Q: What sequence folds into this?
């Protein structure tokens, strides 16, 4: 498996890698339009809402994991095969492209983020459509060991909220049913993994960041965000830092906030409620 974050030197050494543009915007702007107006040469576009997520619902959240068959059909249709190496990028430090990279790595496909995204590209951009011949991509079930349930997110040793601080603290909530965070969760915004040029911090610096939060082993960690997208950035950062693989809570705050479970607000994690005999925190 290749590293979760690579640079242009890696691209130069792997000319057969498939470039994938995964631009997506919470404010509703079109990632596809952004791709058409300028993208890395040869890059195909993946739509996050249709290829990397199942339809939204209050029960499952805004970006539930896609069914394996849906994911496989979408990637195969774009010309991405089981044996391909995939390098994904966006224009926001990997905040949306990380979802594709994490999903692919979870099913054993070599995939990485291009460090710095489209802004790091030193050559001319290409405009317009890019198509590749459709190929076979096998549908594989998601690895249960890589996923956390809503109960896990309420009880794990380390629960990380990857959203911006204002949303974690409950000062604002632009899209979900309630403001705040899961009691006991700490706030490590995905943006804190990046420098001013939207490049990942060095692995040693990332390790220090997580160590300051009490994390030295990713296997003890569950990560969530608003809908399970930017959480993947923290998951890849943990791996890039050499701390191993944590678990994603796919429903994230969009699922949790639609329940009657308690929330916390403010800058502190808050106290977790005691568990009931069935193991569910109330």
A:
């Amino acid at each position: 498996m290749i590293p979760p974050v690579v640079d242009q030197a890696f691209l130069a050494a792997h000319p057969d890698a498939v470039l994938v543009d995964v631009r997506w915007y919470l404010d509703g702007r079109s990632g596809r339009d952004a791709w058409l107006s300028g993208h890395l040469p040869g890059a195909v576009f993946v739509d996050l809402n249709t290829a990397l997520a199942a339809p939204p619902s209050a029960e499952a959240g805004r970006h539930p994991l896609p069914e394996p068959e849906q994911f496989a059909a979408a990637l195969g249709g774009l010309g991405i095969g089981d044996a391909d190496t995939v390098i994904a990028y966006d224009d926001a430090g990997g905040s949306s492209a990380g979802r594709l990279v994490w999903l692919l790595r979870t099913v054993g496909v070599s995939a990485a983020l291009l460090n710095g995204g489209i802004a790091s590209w030193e050559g001319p951009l290409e405009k317009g459509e890019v198509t590749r011949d459709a190929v076979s991509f096998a549908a594989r079930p998601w690895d249960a060991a890589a996923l956390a349930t809503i109960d896990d997110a309420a009880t794990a040793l380390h629960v990380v909220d990857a959203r911006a601080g204002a949303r974690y603290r409950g000062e604002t909530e632009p899209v979900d049913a309630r403001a705040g965070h899961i009691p006991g969760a700490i706030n490590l915004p995905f943006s804190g993994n990046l420098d001013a040029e939207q490049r990942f911090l060095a692995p040693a610096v990332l390790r220090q960041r997580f160590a300051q939060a009490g994390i030295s082993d990713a296997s003890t960690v569950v990560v969530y965000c608003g809908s399970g997208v930017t959480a993947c950035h923290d998951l890849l950062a943990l791996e890039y830092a050499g701390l191993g693989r944590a678990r994603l809570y796919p429903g994230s705050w969009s699922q949790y906030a639609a329940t009657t479970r308690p929330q916390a607000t403010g800058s502190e994690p808050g106290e977790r409620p005691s568990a009931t005999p069935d193991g569910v925190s109330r």
